[in-house]
Amino acid sequence: MIRTLRSLSLVFASLVLGATALAQAPEGGFPTKPVRIIVPYGPGGSTDVVARILAAKLTQLLGQTVIVENRAGANAIIGTQAVAQSAPDGYTLLAASNGNAVNVSLYKKLPFDQLKDFVSVVGVASMPNVVAVHPSQPMHTLKDLIQAAKADPDAIAYGHAGVGSSQHLSGEMLKLVAGVKIRQIAYKGGGPAVTDALGNHVPMVIAGLPAIVQFVKSGQMRALAVTSPKRSSQLPDVPTVAEQGYPGFNQVFWIALIAPKGTPAPVIARLNKAVNDALAMPDIVHALAAQGAEPTGGTPEQLDKFIREEIQSAASVIQQAHIKVND
Fold it and tell me: For residues 126 and 222, what is the distance between their CA atoms, to the nearest angstrom?
């Protein structure tokens, strides 16, 4: 009888402790099953690589597997729509980037509302674009490039990763602030654009840092500027566009996590804390740095404000540069 009472006491105590733990844990102990991060691009790109670096660490921190799933197509629209239509429970997240801000103005109609159908979770990372030329080109500084473009607008063209890409907008912003005309050549990705620049088939390229940094370091390409507000730790000797006469110039490639509208606030808070904790860890900082990226972090409110500003900035460039896409 005594043994039975002790057993019942232990069971009761465990139930009480379990209930207390559940009460303290957001949304009944989120997560209790695998979490998916949808990357709206193909594997191997900057968004995919950064998402996988983060997912591996979040798997440790959250105690559940975090899976990266590629849903490429239609300039990130397919993957974004999939997340918008997912259950708002925190188990399906979107690795959003510049393309999501650009698409708001680039397309006349989208199957979702970028601002109304999502909630911000946390910024993940950002990386600069690089303005570079083949070493055989006579331009050694951004000033040289601008002067050459003013002297003969038809002589210079730049390659980029595709219409509406961060690299494309960087080029169009540069043309606007410098008051020059430079032809643009759209490629199907940053890799092909850099390949043509390496072969000197296009005199100039604007590429994401991960796609070009190795060629700059090896001397196969000459970097004239980075498009971020401060210099990149990967290319510390390359000045920013802002340093070279265009103060305030800022066009970086960014990656963030967002979730379907209606995702519970405690779940958002749990995810936000886990990502911020991950981004503060030396191994993650090192892994991101190897990709030319810097951790962002911050609050959901900060990310929401940032995305709204990015949408407005992209809209301004698209309008002024008359960027269009067949939709």
Answer: 22
Task: Enumerate the domain spans of the chain.
Answer: 26-127+253-321, 128-244
What does each C-alpha distance from 122 to 76, 215, 275 come to in angstroms? Answer: 19, 32, 7
Task: For residue 227, give the nearest of 212, 219, 218 by alpha carbon.
Answer: 212
The Cα 235–Cα 170 span in angstroms is: 18
Q: Token match 């959901």: residue?
A: 300
CB 221 within 8 A of CB 200: no
d(CA 80, CA 256): 13
- pLDDT tens by residue, 241-271: 999 999 999 999 999 999 999 999 999 999 9
Angstrom distance (rounded) from CA 143 to CA 140? 8
Is residue 132 a contact partner of residue 221, using CB atoms and an 8 Å limit? yes
pLDDT in tens, 32-52: 999 999 999 888 778 888 999
> According to CATH, what is the number of the domain 128-244?
3.40.190.10
Q: Which CATH architecture has domain 26-127+253-321?
A: 3-Layer(aba) Sandwich (3.40)
